[in-house]
Amino acid sequence: MTIQAPEGTRDLLPDEASYWDAFYSIAKDVFSKYGYIPIYTPQIEQTELFVRGIGEATDVVSKEMFTAISGENLKRLVEGGSIKAKSRLSLRPEGTAGVVRAVVQHDLVPQGAPPAKLMYAGPMFRAERPQRGRQRQFNQIGIECLGADDPTIDAEAIIMLMSFYERIGIERDSMRLLVNSMGCENCRPAYRDLVHAYLAERESELCDTCKTRMEMNPLRAFDCKNEACAAIMESAPKITDHLCEDCKEHYGQMFGLLKRAGLDFVEDPSLVRGLDYYTRTVFEVQAISSQSAQNAIGGGGRYDKLTEEIGGRATPGFGFALGYERCVLALQDAGFQFAKAKKCDVFVACASPDVRMDAFDLVQQLRAIGRIAEMDHQSRSLKSQFKLADKLDSRLVAIIGPDELAQGLIKIRNMDSHEERSVPINEALAAIDGEL
Ligand code: HAM
User: Fold this and answer.
1) How many helices (H) and strands (E) does the chain have?
2) Which secondary-structure segment (H or E) carries 402?
3) What is the pLDDT of residue 259?
4) Which of 168, 284, 326 most suits a substitution to test ligand 1, by most atoms within 8 Å of the C-beta?
5) N vs C: which end of the chain shows fewer Cβ within 10 Å?
6) What residues are paired with 175 via a beta bridge?
7) Model-level pTM?
């Protein structure tokens, strides 16, 4: 039996791979205008980083992390031994914890420095049950801004993300932007206690997962898909009624800025997100046209306590990540046709095997002037070289024949108009370049 890609992973075949590249180029173009520059952190980090950063009680950390054990350590465990904490490694389930770790480790935001505005892209890993739009390895593009708690940071990042979606072709009115505030260390504990008390009164009606959530992380009950729990949570106390004055002010300013920018959004006090590091602003963007249950194409928020959780000095932060695969599904569901990757500008065909060296030279010269050039590498007949040029979608075919070559000429055929002309070989490069 042939070996298949692991469940919940996908190959980005060449046409789609060029979309991933295009999305990242667009993201760099849009985000760089706001001062974001790339950072690349490892795909594997100490497990402890995610436990402390994302939160031990979250589904992401408690159930979905892929933990990696070296062969040597596996042997140690099998033999009943233990392994050092720093040797416990996990594949990153998201990008924020690693970027924040790098900011702290390399002191990228020294006292008094302007905020560090960082962007990243790459694969993330979560051992979730695979379904349409939910994979075990998926690609994210994200940003993190560390060093400023002003609501202008939150608002400009959300505006920037919405312009990215539009640039890739997702229309503004086919997206829903949900925003909420999660409060801070001053107001959230009391709110959490309120939700706990509310759930405790209705414990017998809750699903088993929510019974556990009630003790571990009562706010997660807002995310329960169970109908009875969802009905109970509709009447649960709303965080926005329990924010402290500072959080209220921050939230008000943030959505005032979104309104000034003409963004439509929905205030959703039940938006709690699945990661524990959030404080104040949280948001999510959903694709309305999506045919998947997994319609969140991106989300993020503020995390003013995360640097301290992982042992750094207090540094406020804000960020988001968008899911590449879910954006592609949203576009496909809206009927968007993906263009094929461009394979060839000009195919250099040989009318006889004697001219292969000349064809080889011309192909190299064409590549040197920036053209995608190809020739036959499988001793095909002239007829099948034309078929190949057609398959590669080549705009032009340059035909080198021994007779023409003896006269210092080369033929150029336009595959769209089928017109053919002979040009002097020393003018071939300029003639081909001019016709493309
Ligand atoms: P998240 O909401 O967990 O946030 O993920 C962001 C996006 O990644 C989701 O909206 C979705 O599009 C995509 N995504 C998540 N899980 C999967 C999956 N299993 N399969 C396919 N796509 C998926 C974060 O990851 C935070 N780090 C965002 C953030 C950055 N917050 C602050 N800074």
Assistant:
1) 16, 16
2) helix 402-406
3) 97
4) 326
5) N
6) 287
7) 0.92
